[in-house]
Design goal:
- The chain contains seven helices and eight strands, in the order E-H-E-H-E-E-H-E-E-H-E-H-E-H-H.
- The protein is of the alpha/beta class and 217 residues long.
- It has one domain: Aldolase class I (TIM Barrel), CATH 3.20.20.
- It has an eight-stranded parallel β-sheet.
- Helix 4 (151-165) links the parallel strand 6 and strand 7.
- The protein is globular, with a radius of gyration of 16 Å.
- It binds D-xylitol-5-phosphate (DX5) and zinc ion (ZN).
- D-xylitol-5-phosphate binds at residues 7, 9-10, 32, 34, 65, 138, 140-145, 174-177, 194-198.
């Protein structure tokens, strides 16, 4: 089943709990948590403390997207009763195979994300080890950017590998998803769709979530 993961990067942090309750009520299945360090990406967001403030306030699983250098140092901090996936960037991990095993040893699903300029083939040696691949369809760092069309080619290449080598792999996409392109990405094979500004920028968040969920059925 396809799932929608609203990214709280674009939420109003002064009422984060309320907004998360809204997306949960509307039927979103996952919360996407964008952690940025101002080093791997040119922006700083928040860390585990903010993520943990949601514990007890939502039953939704956390999809933790670490856009940070040297993520191995911080993995444990992001493991909570809500954490389903921890995703690191291939570009940030010189010992990616080891990092994936580290994530799995913490009892959560292991994801790897690749930037728009990183080819899908960069994952060829580890594709069987992955639970999730998060294709960046914008350069990570900011919400509200435009979807890069070459991402469709990458979805295709990843789908081929999934079919041949790891049928359980979950294909995810992040960046520039709107009501106009969501159906095209799920039709192409994306199963976990991240959307930030398209959801939290809407005047009626609850209805926007329902509208997107309808499109990806
Ligand atoms: C970008 C983040 C995304 C971001 C997506 O670096 O990883 O998760 O929130 O935002 P939109 O959906 O607005 O492109
Ligand atoms: Zn993200």
């Amino acid at each position: 089943m396809n799932r929608l993961a609203p990214s709280i990067l674009s939420a109003d942090f002064s009422k984060l709990g309320e907004q998360v309750a809204l997306i949960e009520k509307a039927g979103a299945q996952v919360i996407h948590i964008d952690v940025m360090d101002g080093h791997f990406v040119p922006n700083i967001t928040f860390g585990a403390v903010v993520m943990k403030s949601l514990l007890g306030k939502t039953k939704l699983p956390f999809d933790v997207h670490l856009m940070i250098a040297d993520p191995d140092r911080y993995l444990e901090e992001f493991v909570t009763e809500n954490t389903e996936i921890i995703t690191v960037h291939a570009e940030a991990c010189p010992h990616l195979h080891r990092t994936i095993q580290h994530i799995k040893s913490l009892g959560v699903r292991a994801g790897v994300s690749i930037n728009p300029a990183t080819p899908v083939s960069a994952l060829d040696a580890i594709i069987e080890d992955l639970d999730v691949v998060l294709l960046m369809s914008v350069n990570p760092g900011f919400g509200g950017q435009k979807f890069i069309p070459y991402s469709f080619q990458k979805i295709e290449e990843l789908k081929e590998r999934k079919q041949k080598r790891n049928p359980a792999l979950e294909i995810s996409i992040d960046g520039g998803i709107t009501a106009d392109n969501l159906k095209t990405v799920t039709d192409a094979g994306v199963e976990l769709v991240v959307a930030g500004s398209a959801i939290f920028g809407a005047s009626d968040i609850e209805n926007r979530v329902k509208e997107l969920l309808e499109l990806m059925k």
